[in-house]
Amino acid sequence: MQTALFLSQLLNGLLDGFYYLLIALGLSLIFSLGGIVNLAHGAFFAVGAYMAIVLTPYLGFFGAVIVGPLVVAAMGIVVERLLFARFYRIDPLYSLLLTFGLAMVLEQSMRWIFGSAPLAYSIPDALRGQIFMGEFIYSRYRLFTIAVAIIAIGLLWLLLNRTAFGRIVRAGIQNPDILGTLGISLRPYLSAVAAIGIGLAGLAGILMAPIQPVHPAMGAEVLVAAFVVVVIGGLGSFWGVVLAAILVGLVKGFMAAIDLTSWSLASIYLLMFIVLLVRPRGLMGERILRFE
Fold it and tell me: Is 69 within a domain?
């Protein structure tokens, strides 16, 4: 029984890692291509959670999982066109201040619309219950969430590595001046990357809504952990961020399994410290010429 409980805690930690990964991939893409340090990413995670509450009465939970991220992605396009576009060519510090202000505006807007009190969102009936495998027992909804996250990450990898869109984005990350000499404008790609990255944060929020109370400030802790994942994985590396998220999730799960839950956040900071001592670029960080 103790072994089953240990595995369950590890899987819970891995689930957290997948939430962080959905957010971290968007953070990494937006910064790598546009140089924008998006501190509002956690607020979009919270917007996604509220989308689940708003859309479910009309579309059902599964409809909200599909439509909600698209709504948040559309918000990302508006933000990119009106705000991010003005900060691509200047010091990233200014974008940091901009997105910090945007995060405050979004958080206060949610507080104004929905109130400050946490809202409960129940697991849909089709996904309630447990999966039994011998002594191992695990939530059906949590397994569903892991599966959805894996599918979303796989689709993003295919988009970035098997399409013309992905080739241009990867070239733009390394050296956008080369694309300029070829007559290729990055403007539509910057908008698309912002939509994808922010939409993934919205998806993570919708999936998290049945697991924890929904409130306006719920994105703050997740955002910090997502930044840790980006730093550990290395800027510009898709698989580095994936590996880092899995490691962070397993470390958190292990700390919970040995009854040291209060140390789980400290443990991922220690992991980041150790990785940066050995590999300052992160586990699989790439050289990005325009940032050097």
Answer: yes
Distance (Å, rounded) from C-alpha 42 to C-alpha 218? 8
How many whole angstroms from its chain centre is CA 30?
Answer: 12
The tens digit of pLDDT for each residue in 21-73 reads 999 999 999 988 888 889 999 999 999 999 999 999 999 999 999 999 999 99
**Residue 246 covered by a domain:** no
3-state helix, strand, coil in the chain (%, to 5): 75, 5, 20
Q: Indicate the pTM of the whole model.
A: 0.92
Range of the domain at 57: 13-215
d(CA 291, CA 143) in angstroms, rounded, equals 39
According to DSSP, residue 129 is labeled: S
Q: Which amino acid is at 236?
A: G
Q: How many domains does the chain fold into?
A: 1
Q: Looking at the domain assignment, is residue 147 inside a domain?
A: yes
280: Cβ contacts below 8 Å, ≥ 6 apart: none
Q: Which of 2, 5, 27, 11 is nearest to 232 (CA)?
A: 27
